[in-house]
Amino acid sequence: MNDDRSLVAAVLAQTPGAFERLVREYQGLCWHIIQRMVRHPDDTRELCQEAFLRVHQCLHQYRHESALKSWIGQVAYSVAKRHLERKRIPIVEVADDEDALSPLDMVSDGFDLEAACADEEVAAGLHAEIEALPPLQRTLLTLYHLEEVPIGEIAAMTGLAEGTIKSHLFRTRARLRQRLEARLGEFA
Amino acid sequence: MNRKTFDDKNANDRAAPGFDDPRMEREWQLQERAQREERAGAPMAADDPRLAQYRLLTRALRAPVMEPIPFGFAEQVARRAQAVATGNDRVERYLQQLLLGALVVAGVWFAWSSSAGWLPAMLQGLPQGLPQGALSWGPVVIACCALTWGWDGVARVVGLDRGRGGHAA
């Protein structure tokens, strides 16, 4: 938190190299959020730049009420969300309860994790399933698993309630597991 | 990048609302356990295929197929931000100068258009209040002052004095 304060102060004081340091520190987070939302590489690059330009422009408004990471993540998320809205791409897919519960009923035994990991087709299929998720679900999973952002901070970034995020994570993971199981069944 | 410790993370997850359905709560706990064990690199429990599947999923989520960040991205963004900030600054300065110019022109125009009323009266009363000979050298002094100070002011507003040093780029 103190590092964030000194970094923000340095950027606001226009210390040479300070803003570049800030970008380097948070470019991974921004890039992952935006790429997971929009998926298009050129759009990702353009929007990521736009997000950081906005950070540069509005940093004087940052009051240290949340972590700098959350604030920057929020900017990146809102830039990507607005882009999808302009293109009329839905960011969330609502699943009914039946759909969420049904994966809980199925289970097979004798699963060999190491063998499944070594199977490139299984891994590629799993990545394809993740890619095929709606933008919001994809982004939430990335923030939670790859960036290791706690649910409370994800809520601050996305403006969603913690319960909603938890529900999305739960349903998406359950559904992906079900599809993984079906895929493994095909190869068995 | 600062990573949260497992304890921090668990504390945060406890704060999130639980599921009403016990089956869903159990499944959530299984998903979370898979994530924790995968992060810690814990050995696989052979007797729980469901947990193993979640661990495989977690592994895939932690190693996504994504376009890498372009080389030199931070440097490019910082350069662009600097250029945008400088551009904004320049526009602001031009607008300020334009406004000041308009104000001066409006003032001169107003003084000129209304001079028929106040100028003769002022000129009439002027000789009595001034020392002898002032009417001959007075206008010269005023013109010199106006030229010197006026030019300095104009140069400052237009930005011509930046080459004289004293201002950082």
Descriptive overview:
The complex is a heterodimer of chains A (188) and B (169). Chain A has helices at 2-12, 18-38, 41-58, 68-86, 97-105, 113-118, 120-131, 135-146, 151-158, 162-187. By secondary structure, chain A is mainly alpha-helical. Chain A has two domains: 2-86, RNA polymerase sigma factor, region 2, helix turn helix motif (Rna Polymerase Sigma Factor, Chain: A); 97-187, Arc Repressor Mutant, subunit A. In chain A, helix 1 (2-12) packs across helix 2 (18-38) and helix 2 crosses helix 4 (68-86). The radius of gyration of chain A is 19 Å and the shape is elongated. Chain B is mainly alpha-helical and 169 residues long. Chain B contains six helices and no strands. Chain B has helices at 6-15, 22-40, 49-62, 73-113, 115-129, 134-158. In chain B, helix 2 packs across helix 3. Mean pLDDT of chain B is 77; it is low at 1-14 and 161-169.
CATH architecture of the largest domain in chain A: Orthogonal Bundle
Q: Estimate the strand proportion of chain B.
A: under 5%
Please, how many helices of chain B? 6
Biggest beta sheet summary of chain B: none
What is the count of structural domains of chain A?
A: 2
CATH class of the largest domain in chain A: Mainly Alpha
Distance between the termini of chain B: 34 Å
- How many helices of chain A? 10
The beta-strand count of chain A equals 0
Q: Tell me the strand percentage band of chain A.
A: under 5%
CATH superfamily of the largest domain in chain A: Winged helix-like DNA-binding domain superfamily/Winged helix DNA-binding domain
The low-confidence parts of chain A are: none
What is the share of helical residues of chain B? over 70%
- Shape descriptor of chain A reads elongated
Judged by helices, strands and strand pairing, the structural class of chain A is: mainly alpha
Q: Ranges of chain B with pLDDT <50 over ≥5 residues?
A: 1-14, 161-169
